[in-house]
Amino acid sequence: MNKFYDHQSGRTLQERPEAYILDKVFDPEYFSELKESFALIRESNVLPYNLELGRSGINTIDKDVGADVLNSAFDKVSAKARSIFGQDVKPTYALWVAYRGFRANLPRHIDDNACTYTIDLCMSYETQWPIYIEGQEILLEPNQAVVYYGEDQYHWRGEFPSPLKNEVQMIFFHFAEPNHWFFTEGPQHKQEIVRIKEAHQKKNGIK
Question: CB neighbours (10 Å) of residue 95?
Fold first, then answer.
């Protein structure tokens, strides 16, 4: 694949195939069970909240409450990931999120974490909230996912629709190759990745 320098991030990126929608990620019965499991978790727990992005979440890296349910889904989707991205890819982490309210947003970015290969699954929505990947608009229905390359393809969402009553639930499944820093250096190496990016942006006056 062709590589190019991205001044915004200060990184060398790869040209990647266009994002596309993966239909019927899970069988309907399991998908219903998964939705019910997260509903029960939310009823009985206070989940971590990301103030910057306006979303609550469950992260397999942090072993949040409910991570066992998330890891079970991760195991099931990993076979699909290998068939799409290659047999050598390994799971890095998964994240269940619920966006709601006036703080909900997703700015234009490429991922700092171990997200070389990404399968973003729509769990539910009250009002659809498109995601844009390199300018391509993607609209997902429940149990559909968008397949793309989170570390190489800029992605974002527009203004969160109907913030008084809307909620959008997603699961982000991420994968990388065995020689990725996530495996060679450990998940904590993300802090150094972010530090280098922020130093580049500060030096060059990039916001």
Answer: 22
Residues spanned by the domain of 37? 16-203
In 10 A of CB 72, how many CB atoms?
13
Q: What is the per-residue pLDDT across 29-56, written as a single tens digit (0 to 9) for each?
A: 999 999 999 999 999 999 999 999 999 9
Q: What confidence category does residue 207 fall into, taking pLDDT thresholds of 50, 70 and 90?
A: confident
List, in order, residues 6 or more apart from 157 with CB less than 8 Å away.
Answer: 105, 106, 129, 130, 131, 132
What does the longest C-alpha to C-alpha distance in the chain come to?
52
Residue type, 139: L
Residue 2 is assigned to a structural domain of this protein: no
In this prediction, residue 51 carries a pLDDT of 98
Counting the structural domains of the chain, the total is 1
Cα gap 58→157, rounded to integer Å: 21
CATH number of domain containing 191:
2.60.120.620
Task: Report the alpha-carbon distance of residue 81 to residue 118 in Å, rounded.
Answer: 8
Q: Is the per-residue pLDDT at 61 higher than 80? A: yes
